[in-house]
Write a structure and sequence with these properties.
Chains A, B: GO terms for molecular function: all-trans-octaprenyl-diphosphate synthase activity; metal ion binding. Chains A, B: It comes from Gluconobacter wancherniae NBRC 103581. Chains A, B: Its EC number is 2.5.1.90. 2 copies of one chain form a homodimer. Chain A is mostly helical. Chain A has one domain: Farnesyl Diphosphate Synthase. Chain A contains 17 helices and 2 strands. Chain A has helices spanning about 10-15, 20-30, 40-50, 55-65, 75-100, 110-115, 115-140, 140-165, 170-195, 200-225, 230-235, 240-245, 250-255, 260-270, 280-290, 295-310, 320-335; strands at about 105, 110. A two-stranded antiparallel sheet of chain A has the order 1-2. The radius of gyration of chain A is 20 Å and the shape is globular. The interface of A and B includes residues 38, 98, 122, 125 and 126 of A.
Chain lengths: ~325, ~325
Amino acid sequence: MLKDAGGESALSALSAFLEEDMHACNRAIVQRMQSPVPLIPQLGAHLVAAGGKRLRPLLTLASARLCGYEPAPDRQRHVGLAACVEFIHTATLLHDDVVDESTLRRGLASANAVFGNKASVLVGDFLFARSFQLMTADGSLRVMAILSAASATIAEGEVLQMATQNDLSTPIDRYLEVIHGKTAALFAAACRVGAVLTDRPIAEEEALDAFGTNLGMAFQLVDDALDYAADQQTLGKTVGDDMREGKITLPVLAAYDAATPEEKVFWERVIEQGEQTDADLPRALELIAKTDAIGVTIARAQTYADAAVEALSIFPESELRGLLERTVQYTVNRAR
Amino acid sequence: MLKDAGGESALSALSAFLEEDMHACNRAIVQRMQSPVPLIPQLGAHLVAAGGKRLRPLLTLASARLCGYEPAPDRQRHVGLAACVEFIHTATLLHDDVVDESTLRRGLASANAVFGNKASVLVGDFLFARSFQLMTADGSLRVMAILSAASATIAEGEVLQMATQNDLSTPIDRYLEVIHGKTAALFAAACRVGAVLTDRPIAEEEALDAFGTNLGMAFQLVDDALDYAADQQTLGKTVGDDMREGKITLPVLAAYDAATPEEKVFWERVIEQGEQTDADLPRALELIAKTDAIGVTIARAQTYADAAVEALSIFPESELRGLLERTVQYTVNRAR
């Protein structure tokens, strides 16, 4: 198992390594969020202010560089595509917060809480349309095929997640299918389009796809673990959100699987019937600790993380490859 | 002013003329709505069952034919693009019904009323992504540029509409900008992509764009008139919906403009403060009749309709051109 004590700073190191590209990407995001309709850049500014790690555009920029893409003042396709990936992600976040009725996002009031559900739905649609305009401007049919397929897969994942809600009999494979759709598919596409910009062998493109898929799976597993483990400040969202929504995640499935008959009754009332009191979150955290459900979840995340690192092995060793490997471990270490 | 007593049947005649293409388009719609996630085709079947006139895909098919596109078993780009246009339209309908909290659509329970808001948001996203996959499969960058720009304009129009809600000081030009965005832009794009399939002079493409824009403006003006005029069965939605939502449309702006001081107080309470009782709809209809606000709205629709017909004049006379002209007049006659 890969260990990295300095993992916490890996994402900042990767950002710093790609600093110029990231600045250009942030400029493109702000610029392409403009519209003659004032509410759109206003809501956009709220999202930009909320920050976020910009992990997905970083993956596009890093993948392009890893495949030898050499930017120049008139060669900035990687920047446009990184912005495009972030637009798709932001659109899905806006719609997720409406669907989940979330009031916090990254520790700040969510857009739907400030601007209302209507604005979040419609500005999400705008950003989604804008992302396709960015792809069209890029002009590669391969890129469009990858990103439009990923967009459809994300929506399918979200619908599937809705269908599993409140259902403790959801098989683990179904849960994995959900997180593949809602998270890993875009991570994979973000990496893959970086490779498409160059004419490297298809094996490198597939390796980056596998890297993104496995990193995305690890990332979402850890996110789901953090919902029962972290304090609100670390996570930037309300702890117990998933439980309140009756969302089926691995920590719950693992705790339920290892539960006594009396504990199963608790989970069924809380998750399936959705009948919850203030005392239920502490009780849930206690049962999750007792059954090591977080440990089970993190162990599975680590397996995906190891596969992500392994996928990079076809690239020669380099500072960038090392930074990507450390980013993978950072993703898992967030929950440790 | 163009008159056509048989206008009511014009849309059926156009559908019949393009019957084979329309069947192929309907098959493509059902087929591309498939997904391993069962709720997606289920919700899709609800939408297909609700019917609808499929006016936008008809426009794509008709425009392609008018420009001389000659289909063959292996030349069916017009069908794929017509389905694509309908997917974009359906996605926006699903999101509109969520935003407007509508319970009826075309006389049947709306998707959000049956499947819930979450499913409508997410399946809308899926259909939108699918439309971009259809465009990618078509492979024309010009088509993608037209349809992705139209998609962004639709979202802008919807956001602008939200910003004008409850605001009786909205200038008529702002209202026209809203309906251009939310309706006319997709009509124009639906027509334009039909022309792009052939290598006809750019003047024909621009003529079809102008035709679609003007037809879309007329169509939406009439729709807005019908909300204060038709009975529920004719319209397939609840009369007075727009008033209940405080939506700013031309019938209201015209009635308010011509109102006495006491009538202005009524409109301000109902539209701006949104305080409504059961007696208010009959009162509103009375004031709208008194000020001939429907007449004002239809007259403006007729001006756009005339411009739409005029735009077709660069094409030689033909049965298809005649059917399109009659379809324009049908659009206006719905409210007479």
